[in-house]
Amino acid sequence: MNYDYNLSAIAVPLILAAGSVLVLLTDVLLGKKAKDSAYQTTLTILALAGVFCFTRWGTGGSAFFGQVYTDGFTSFFNLAFLTVGFLVVLNSPNYLIRNGIDHGEYYMLILLALLGMTFMASAGDLLIFFLGLETMSICLYVLAGFHKSRAKSNESSLKYLLLGAFFTGFLLYGMALVYGQVGSTNLAEISNYLAEAANPLGGYMGIGLALLLIGLTFKMAVVPFHFWSPDVYDGAPTPVTAFMSTAPKAAAFAAALRIFYHPGIELGIPWENVLWVLAVLTMTVGNFAALAQTSVKRMLAYSSITHAGYLLVGFLASNELGASGMLFYLFMYGFMNVGAFTIAYLVNRRGKGNYNLSDFAQLGTKSPMLAALMSIFMLSLTGIPPLAGFFGKLYIFSAAVQEGYVWLVVIAVLNSAISVFYYLRVMVMMYMREGEDLADLEKAPTVAITAVICGLAILIFGLFPSPLLDLARASIIALL
Amino acid sequence: MIALEPYLDLIISVVYVVGIVLFLSLFALFATWLERKVAGHIQDRLGPMETGGWHGWLQPIADAIKLLIKEDIIPAAADKKLFKLAPYLVFIGSLAGFAVLPFAANLIGSDLNIGVYYVIAVTSLVVIGILMAGWASNNKWSMYGAMRSAAQMISYEIPVALSLLIPVMMAGTMSMVEIVDNQAGGFWNWYVFRTMPFSLIAFVIYFWASLAEVNRAPFDLPEAESELVAGYFTEYSGIRWAMFFLAEYGDMFVVSAIAATVFLGGWYAPFPFLDIIPGPIWFIGKTAFLVFVQMWLRWTLPRLRVDQLMYVCWKIFLPFSFANLLLVGLWVVLKG
Amino acid sequence: METFFFILFAVVAIFSGLMVILKKNPIASVMFLILALFATAALYVMLMAPFMAAIQIIVYAGAIMVLFLFVVMLLNLSKIQEGGVSALKIIGALVAGGIMVAIAVVVRSIAIPADSGFLRELPAEYGTVESIGRSMFITYLLPFEIASFLLLAAIIGAVVLAKKKLE
To answer: Which site among B112, B124, B164 would you substitute to test the C interface, given the most C Cβ atoms closer than 10 Å to its Cβ?
Structure first.
């Protein structure tokens, strides 16, 4: 019997799994003497996993009886997750130490969340996808409530857990229906069934796939399943918010691409129309809610809903350009959001601690570098050329136009125009407003380094997008 | 004439269940008498001597009659429905275990292919009944007793299950009959003596942990008289109390019978030539011996503290069980 | 005979499921939940999956429900005070009932294609311990191992959130 246990196919998750245990052990054994041993170990593990991911770039094929795909798509997303993870971990200690919650478990949970995400992106079987999703979600529930002494953090964790469990129900029900219809949870088997069946989406298949998609849209925070996200993002510790608003979203989109772009699996016209409506709603609702926010953290939370809407446009286009645009966008979105949240955190320390927009006053003169970086993030989130965010949007929108979704793109562009208002408001505040007695900025090297890395990445990939885009395209071709 | 054919299974089942209930009652009567005798002799007394003449053999019957005619008290503040339901639930949990006890090759309620697992499952019902009783009584002692009991039973279920897995692994089946059949041909084939010393360790762990499962000394904290009056059945009287009592002795029999089945060769004689003696006698004999050992332990060992109880379970039994499981697994694989 | 038992257990399951949400006393709710789980386990037996049934009883009825009981008892929840009938509640009930009817209509109206997995013949060894063990430890080894990390994350998470002071 051919056992097909190719461990090198899951090298990255294996490193993360071993690493999570290692972090826990180092924290127990060395934590007393060397306070930041868990932190350093985590960074090392993430770097190691990144190196493995890069040197063993997926070349196609599958392992574990077709349950895990080892193609470029997997590797691309693994790299994206690891990058976000690295950046988040890099700037975490400042927040954790200041709030007295610097426990090794934090890093371990981040590693395990990343482990779940890698399986979501590489899943060739609904079971693997589901387990990956749950591993990720459970870690996030805990991370959101990691700041136990703050009521808001607890609220965030509880809301996320309750709603998450509810939507897991949808997801599982959908998977059960698909399994009942096909007799297997394997994606390849499902597409075989769809190819051979007389009436592919007949019976419970259509409903099953739709429920699956609904479960996923919850994780993407698509309207009308977005109600949790502002409160959850707002209440969670800021580094965790940076993490939650980027990597899990990427993972959910990765899984959606993996399942619904799988050759032979299709949703069918009625559901595409539903997605069209959802995309419009997501962009618009997120935008208008963001307009009304006075807290930068909440504004970013709502804006991340809007960005899910843009990504849905790319998802709907379902062609090579749109998909590779999504990959590019998701990768860059990680840099933009993590950067914006870290600066928001740093600036917040000047004010009363509620992430008020007015804390940004006079940042332009007090700390020109931070102000410049924040401007980069805001402009890139708006989609101003030549920053990376612009190219992401460009590819996605032009792909949608190619497929005939002209009105959708018109709405998307209009929404982008609206979003200029609240992104630029931050810049106006930094450069043009007088601040009242605000405390001085503290020195936080790791946070600053994170922001610089993010800013540089956005600049570089904005000026030279083609290498990453080629990589994304190659990954997508493997998928399609 | 009604055609009996389609209902034959049903009739046989009913007869079997009635038989088991009768057997259980008789066993409980005998066991209460034995318990007093054992306790008496260990404490250098004689135990009951008066009722019925010879060594007070009528004492249990007298007790039973006393219990049946006693006033049935339900506390005013109790949750009446649950209070009434609890003893039956506990009793059913204990009785359900009898369904898969192989008294002999063809004297078994149902030879399920998950027999061992089934027993573990149904005994977990007892916990719910006990918690119900403790809560419904609306009495501090009952509640404490029930809590202790639940914590203890859930914890000890793990070492019990892990050590039962060892004979299951060796036999490659969970069917009670097949497990016994694999031990035919003399005591050296019994699982307790194969793969020495692992299976012996498993047997010892099973036996000790099962004492905790049935709330017997030295693990009888749930009903520790000196602290909790009588634990979860403090408020019960008359027939309902008798149900708990019956269930306790039933449980003692079930756990001992399982030990006899999976470790001590079930209905087979220790030497092949002794197989002329019918299987059920061997089976009940082995079980009765283990029940006697339980009583013996009860009257010689002091009770553990709660923390000691948990320590023994999680830090001694559990790691040993896991190591044992691993080693026996290796042994089975290497032997092919 | 089989239909009779199916209807019996299905009715018990649904009835106790309803009771879980209708009973005002939380302890009674938990008790009915246990009953519902037992009825489901019985349905598993009828679906030729006795092992799953035993697992259902051990894990849910035996362990998880006992923890539920523990929590409910320790919190000493009294009967839930309800604020009577409000317009919102009526609307909620109507919407929920409407959705239920809609689901029932949809489910009844869907014809299951003949080639679907629902109607496939079961293999002979279906539901036995051996076949479950084989598929769990050979074909589905990877999901099994991921599940172990899922549980590890859950344990660590529970400790992190529940412990008063992390050291």
So the answer is: B124
